[in-house]
Amino acid sequence: MRKYRRILAAATAVAMTAALAGCSGGSGSSGSGSGSAGELVFVDWGGTNTDARIDAIVKPFEEETGIHVTVVTPSDYAKLISMVENNTTEWDVMNCDAYWGVYAGEEGYLEPMDYDVITTKIDDAAQLEYVMGAEIYTSVIAYNTDKYTADTAPSNWEQFFDTTNYPGKRAVWKYPVTVLEAALMADGVSKDELYPLDLDRAFAKLDTIKDSIIWWTKGAEPSQMLSTGEADYALAWSGRIATAKDEGSPVAMTYDGGIMITAGWVVPKNAPNRENAMKFIEYASEANQQYEFSKRIPYGSTNPEAVALMDDDLKVALGQSDDQLSTEIYLDNTYWAEHLSEVEERFNAWLVG
Amino acid sequence: MLYVYTIVLIIVMILPAVVIIPQAFTSLNYFKFPVEDTSFKWFEKFFDNEQWVVGLGRSMMIAVLAAVLATVIGTMGALAMNKINFKGKSVFMSIMIAPMVVPVVVVGAALYTTFAPIGLTNSIPGLVFAHTLLGIPMVFVTMLSGFANVNENLELAAMSMGSSPVGAFFKVTLPTVKTSLVSSILFAFVTSLDEVVVTTFVSGANTKTLTMVMWENMRTNIDPTLAVAALFMIILTLGMYIVKEVVEARSK
Amino acid sequence: MEANRTSFNGDINAKGVPLSHRISKLSGLKWATVAIPLLYIILTLVVSGFGIIKKSFTGADGFTLDYYIKIFTEPLYLKVLLNTLLTGVIVTAACLLLAYPAAYLSVRAKKPIVRRLITGGIMIPYWMSMLVRIFAWQIILQSNGVLNQLLMFLHITEEPIQFLYTTGAVCVSMTHILLPYMFLSLQSNMEGIDANLSTAAAVMGARPARGFVDVFLPLSVPGIFSGSLMVFVLSLGFYIAPALLGGADNMMMSNLIEENMNNFNSNLAAAMSLELLVIVFVILGIAFKFVGNIFVPKK
Predict the structure, then answer these.
(1) Where do the domains of chain A lie, and which CATH numbers do they carry?
(2) B52-251 under CATH 1.20.1090.10, yes or no
(3) Which residues of chain A lie closer than 8 angstroms to C256, CB-CB?
(4) Does C119 have pLDDT greater than 50?
């Protein structure tokens, strides 16, 4: 028993010493490199996204400019907010949803994009004051291929919301973004009249299938739900389904009526390497880099020149062929930036209601 | 009768482990039970990505340090509650368990506010301090119930048989709370291992833990690499537990 | 008991004074055991905590009670709060009822190997990462999962039952995750309960059930208290299980708070956090009134 106390005491001593040593030795990130010309802290979502990004963009960027890039994952909105509020910004550039970026910019948490440095032109809708669009991921209809084929599964939102002809469980994102748009489109609202969203109508439509919905929160869940048959169909992210399908999961999807979400780059306020961040964004937006990225992971590109580089098969796989684009819509970032909070709250109220 | 019940309970408790371990060996890229075709590709994937491996080691180290520190501090608090008479014990207790009650995301933001100015973010010590904070309430509560059954008269009895006061403390009181002590260390250890939200705030580029890696991967790909990570976590922690049991058995 | 006390009134360092007793009288050490833990928590958490408290009362134009009014009047926040508390109560009760018999058996079993096996069996899942445990429950509760497969195999049901994405799934997984806490708390406390006391009761003529209720049960209250407290408080903070296994109506406070932190509504999040904190403190205060005396040193 005496041994216990001694071991405990010794361990505590070790821990304290280590702590003290750690403290005095400096903590790493904000020590070296802040403000010096050759550093960049780049934040991304992680997983295979970032693997592709490093391969297609980060490494070549390092080689070309000599700037040393530190990759941090995952992107975290609450943490960025904390950093800026405490005036201890450690991140230089972060990939986030464009609508959140617009919101964050309006709230004063971001540096405006420096369009003197960022000269690449991308889709108008994606080139914003505080956000530079990067990739596109689309909310699409996905289905289990063990039980359904392209003909027997719903092929548009109206059918997705039709439980009589298409019975079964639907996996849906537990978030209003794109879900409300899908509901409105299913109810017959045309693409041009979608915004501002008629919330009452959207929720009424959602009510009609609420009992058949199982909700997912993490992007990789729907393919799991479909593969095991827990769900028959899903409103899921195109990139995730495409990857799962490539890896052998029994899933497939259609881009018909797909709602395209733009993800983009933001620079937090008081980023230590702001100029390098702008350089990085410019480099990442160029057609070649965008194309290389989309080749490695099935995300669309906001740069029309990058799309032009793609062969037809790739375009179709990413939902960026002209045919597909005619049925798809872009998520309206301005609308969501303005209304995110209240719509989210109403959505939650509807969920638990 | 009691035995039957307990056996059934244990079966139910172990069931998830039985179900998930084989998934580390599946050839599919999603979770399906029972596992039909086997493959080692997820092990390859795990070792290929240094994030997993380094994260595992880092998680373990932080967990051990945090567990020890939390146990020491939490035990002090429990001793104080139990042995000393002071006013405002209710308040004291509330503060001691506060880290467990305040929602983790708020604790994370709060700790970030405290640590960032003094450079404790993106550092191992910072993570140890953060996890210690989260572990203290559990140690406190556990040791409290352990001490509650300590009877000072037993110490007196031991002394009347010839033992010295210090000896009586170690021979009588401490063994009674030994189980609580072990439980406390366990709780603090696992709390640290499993922790992801506060860690996200306090860690940085160089200090990712395994659970963080698992959590962020869930946005992009849920695949059996998770099961591989879990398998290693079980092996390591179980290993430590068995070593402890053996050492104890020997010292008796 | 009192007689012992007065005889040591004079010299604290007199021979024959137990160490525990001395510790409680030493001025320096005594305050250290109080001060160190307090300081640690206060410095790391409470200081920035004041900032959070302030935030919850601060709006665009300064001091405001709007956030609190909102969370106490709007149905969404009340429902989620109720759901969180209710889930906590259910899970705590389930853990207590399930763990108590097993803990009792583990300390009263004749052979030590039995104790090891029981403890090991209950604790093994604890070694697995919580995330992974939740996935395991997904696999078990799926439509074509282990449970449904078993039920259909035994011909208890013909069609798969929807277990997943329901309140049941959330409660079962949370109970599974939290049971080890309850078990260990109970066990550590029960270990200290002198087996001789039950024997004495039996010798005095009490039937085993009576002996249990009158002797063992009351002495296990500290364990029940600390175990329940831990499980309840931990369950309030759960967000992963309800997010991954729950349905639409299983939203918990933590999910809401996190969403608000990501959307520049940290004031609202602060108010909700404070609400949770106060509720727990109130419950703690009440519980303390009933069982607080167990934490006073026995003399």
Answers:
(1) 39-136+262-317 (3.40.190.10), 138-260+334-352 (3.40.190.10)
(2) no
(3) 348
(4) yes
